[in-house]
Specification:
Blueprint: H1 2-11, H2 14-42, H3 44-52, E1 57-61, H4 75-81, E2 85-96, E3 101-102, E4 117-121, E5 131-132, E6 144-148, H5 149-155, E7 162-166, E8 172-182, E9 189-193, H6 196-202, E10 211-217, H7 222-234, E11 241-245, H8 252-289, H9 291-299, H10 304-311, H11 313-341, H12 350-375, H13 384-389, H14 413-424, H15 430-453, H16 456-459, E12 466-467, E13 470-471, H17 475-488, H18 492-502, E14 507-521, E15 524-532, E16 554-558, H19 559-564, E17 572-580, E18 587-600, E19 609-612, E20 623-631, H20 638-649, E21 654-655, H21 657-664, H22 666-701, H23 703-711, H24 716-755, H25 768-790
Parallel strand pairs: 4-9, 6-8, 12-20, 15-19, 16-18
Antiparallel strand pairs: 1-10, 1-11, 2-4, 2-10, 3-7, 5-8, 7-8, 13-21, 14-15, 14-17, 14-20, 16-19, 17-18
Helix pairs in contact: 2-8, 2-11, 2-12, 2-22, 8-12, 8-15, 8-22, 11-12, 14-24, 15-22, 15-24, 15-25, 17-18, 22-25, 24-25
């Protein structure tokens, strides 16, 4: 009986059945991919630790300390005895310059690979393991090189491309790219992996020793890192060394990848809700069409629960088959999705991905079947009276919407039909309104996440108080300014400011002097970047209750570390500051007490910060930190000032705030753009299918009314326009609700997410043309076009349909 009922259900309304089946498959795939994505995100650190065994510190030894007498090996007893070191091993890694590797079609001087410490090395065998795109070990043949997915994405290279490696002595070697790998070691380290034989040749004339120590700490904390560095400094080493350490605390990369994952999952949840609501609507519509048959069967004594099982046969079959397809398609798609938005993420074991995905899909199928049976409770309300009278009671004779066509002489008939139907039976369209609202909200949310992250406001979390413009120097300009700065003994940006001032342009680069301080609290010592000078402290925003430091013994602290250390405004802290010695020829360590006057937001990238009071001026200057690109002009005049700056430095050198954000975060902007496109296409597809499904059901349910209107002389185009106006009104309501969801719930979720990094005040930044014009027009245009094409079915309805009354 079950399969007979299923066969009959599938025979009729094939188009609607296909759409319902597609929706169930989409829901199953989303559940599979989403569950694996959530697990991968939550277990990323643990998986990386177990599979890649990354080091916490890379310690490199300089070659001028002879390797023949192994003087550098005096480091090893320090590592063996240190209570902070868990384990260590050596590796051969030859440090190369950022222009040493020449990628085709990529300008190393203009790209951002120069911000990473680069090494030539072989496949690691004792730790810091790397894996191919399939999460499996790989082999590099002679004459080839393997590069990370980061390099691939930045340079655009492909397998088979030829790259040139120039050694320090000028020898040039050509290598072919054979593999891309996932690198979960140091955030600021880039490795180029070659064969053992090639490494011997390519590193033969290296200036620096290629021995590095890969150190694993017992606890990867500032305390452990700083303590180990002190032990090395205090030991009698015959070797100079450099260190690269893993970040501790929030990084820009962590925050961006997490926000992409979170909002991708939010969008998937919204889509699944839309699909469930659509299934409910179609089931209710089918039951309404089958009221007579249901009433007759109940009159014959058919048990309600048993009949519900038969009536739900199609949905049960669709759920099972769709779930199987979702599992089959979800496994490869989940890997693609995770690698798409987290290129270096190591996937969970395949069997575990299958286990998680299958469990999630089975749970979804069970919920869908239960949901179908719950919707079937409507059958309990259908009696034999319904079988006799059909629709000739109840809703047909209830009071209609109090608007009459003969009293609305200036109202067009299609608009009258649409508005009376929607306002008179609003409850009927509730789920369609919710679907349009959620669909619009998904597109708006993913767009506004991208727009708000790739913005000058977000960049202020990098210790900028103002970003009216930015400068992207080409290599020639940078070298020229560097030479002038060295010749005159001033900072790089001082030379730039002098040129701007000479041109009479009301703009400048603002900066603070940078130094270092160690903070001790409860026996824990942390190293801080310390900034002071140029009256910049008062220009930053501080958390409520805080204020800018003024006195020499006052300071403000970055909020993330302050929270973790239990520090708040008014606390007195003991710090060791690197300050000028008496004759200003070097630095000394002075212990002082400072009062914390405020907390400020910054993406620490593993290094917390202190801003000293405006009266402080004793720190040892290790450099400077740019805090603002300021234009002293009204907002409406700033574009003109930017053009003046371009006249001095070049058109491509001076960037607007938006251009600066896109340039600084181009890697993440690519991912955000991809998320935006994927979600927009999926949502539009779902809304098109929903609209087609609903309009078809409306046309079927209202066939008698349509036939009656056509028999009275109304044209089919009039009825068709009535459907257009009806859907248009539902769209307006849905899009307005979607905008409200976006600017309230979406913005609150965005701000709430960044609070975990102690970045307060984060919210969506409006961009009027897209948020309030482009997105609504996109949703409305596709939905109304679908309605227009689908509503063409009214031309097939004739007067004989009235016989069904």
């Amino acid at each position: 009986m079950f399969f007979k009922m299923l066969k009959n259900d599938l025979k009729y309304k094939k188009g609607l059945n296909i759409i319902i089946f597609i929706f169930i498959v989409i829901a199953s795939v989303l559940v599979f991919v989403g569950s694996v994505q959530i697990y991968s995100t939550l277990s990323k650190d643990r998986t990386t630790e177990e599979v890649c065994r990354p080091s916490n510190i890379i310690l490199g030894v300089y070659k001028q300390y002879s390797t023949e007498n192994d003087g550098y090996k005096k480091i090893e007893p320090v590592l063996d005895k240190s209570p902070w070191v868990s384990s260590w091993h050596t590796a051969r890694m030859n440090r190369v310059g950022y222009t040493s590797m020449d990628f085709p079609g990529y300008d190393e001087n203009e790209g951002n690979l120069q911000n990473r410490v680069q090494f030539l090395t072989t496949i690691p065998l004792e730790g810091d393991y790397v894996y191919g795109l399939d999460d499996q070990p790989f082999y590099v043949e002679n004459g080839h090189v393997a590069v990370s997915v980061t390099v691939r994405d930045k340079t655009g290279v492909k397998v088979g491309d030829k790259v040139k490696l120039t050694t320090v002595t000028g020898n040039v070697y050509e290598l072919e790219i054979s593999n891309f790998f996932k690198d979960n070691s140091m955030s600021y380290m880039e490795r180029y992996i070659v064969s053992d034989a090639d490494y011997e040749v390519l590193s033969a004339d290296a200036v620096r020793c290629d021995t590095v120590y890969c150190i694993k700490l017992k606890e990867n904390t500032f305390t452990a890192q700083d303590a180990l560095y002190r032990e090395l400094d205090n030991s009698e080493l015959d070797a100079g060394y450099f260190t690269i350490s893993n970040n501790i605390g929030p990084t820009n990369e962590d925050s961006m990848m997490e926000v992409i994952s979170i909002f991708a999952m939010v969008a998937c949840v919204f889509l699944i809700l839309i699909i469930f609501m659509t299934i409910r609507f179609t089931m209710v519509a089918e039951m309404k069409n089958e009221e007579k048959e249901i009433g007759m069967m109940k009159a014959l004594g058919v048990d309600s629960l048993s009949f519900r099982w038969l009536f739900a046969a199609k949905y049960i079959a669709f759920a099972v088959v769709g779930g199987v397809i979702g599992i089959i398609a979800g496994l490869p798609l989940s890997g693609i999705f995770i690698n798409m938005f987290g290129p270096d993420c190591i996937l969970p074991p395949r069997w575990f991905m299958i286990l998680i995905g299958v469990a999630a899909v089975i749970a979804t199928i069970a919920v869908m079947i239960l949901f179908s049976l719950l919707v079937m409770r409507r059958i309990n309300k259908i009696s034999v009276i319904d079988a006799i009278h059909g629709e000739n009671r109840g809703e047909r004779f209830t009071k209609g919407f109090p608007m009459f066509l003969h009293r609305r002489k200036h109202m067009k008939i299609p608009f009258f039909l649409g508005i009376t139907d929607v306002l008179g039976r609003l409850k009927r369209y509730l789920f369609l309104i919710i679907a349009y609202a959620l669909g619009a909200a998904i597109i708006l949310v993913v767009f506004n996440v991208r727009h708000s992250c790739i913005s000058a406001e977000y960049m202020k979390n990098w210790m900028y108080h103002t970003l009216d413009f930015d400068i992207d120097y080409n290599s020639d300009t940078r070298n020229e300014i560097n030479k002038e700065a060295q010749r005159t003994g001033v900072y790089f940006c001082d030379v730039v400011n002098k040129r701007i001032e000479k041109a009479g342009i009301p703009a400048r680069i603002e900066y603070m002097h940078a130094g270092s301080a160690d903070l001790e609290r409860n026996g824990i010592i942390k190293n801080f970047d310390m900034f002071w000078g140029n009256d910049q402290a008062e220009k930053f925003e501080y958390h409520e209750g805080g204020k800018a430091p003024v006195l020499a013994n006052e300071a403000a602290m970055s909020a993330y570390t302050a929270k973790n250390m239990g520090i708040s405004e008014g606390d007195v802290l003991k710090v060791t500051i690197y300050e000028n010695n008496e004759d200003n020829t070097g630095s000394v360590e002075n212990e002082k007490e400072i009062v914390i006057t405020g907390l400020f937001d910054t993406m620490e990238d593993g290094v917390p910060s202190l801003i000293m009071g405006k009266e402080y001026d004793s720190g040892y200057k290790m450099g400077y930190n740019i805090t603002g690109f300021v234009i002293d002009a009204p907002e409406e005049d700033k574009p003109a000032v930017i053009e003046q700056l371009r006249g001095v430095f070049g058109k491509d050198t001076i960037l607007t705030p938006k251009e600066a954000a896109r340039s600084a975060m181009e890697d993440f902007d690519r991912l955000f753009a991809l998320l935006e496109k994927v979600m927009t296409v999926v949502v539009i597809l779902v809304l098109v299918l929903i609209t087609y499904l609903y309009v078809n059901i409306f046309i079927t349910e209202e066939a008698s009314e349509t036939a009656l209107m056509k028999s009275m002389g109304f044209r089919g185009s009039t009825v068709k326009l009535g459907y257009i106006f009806r859907i248009a009104m539902l769209l307006v309501i849905g899009i307005v609700i979607g905008e409200v969801i976006n600017w309230t719930g979406g913005s609150a979720l965005y701000g709430g997410y960044f609070k975990q990094w102690d970045a307060t005040g984060m919210k969506f930044i409006p961009e009027f043309p897209v948020s309030f014009i482009a997105v609504p027009l996109l949703v409305a245009g596709t939905v109304l076009l679908t309605t227009w094409l689908t509503a063409g079915g009214v031309r097939h309805i004739d007067i004989w349909k009235i016989s069904e009354e």
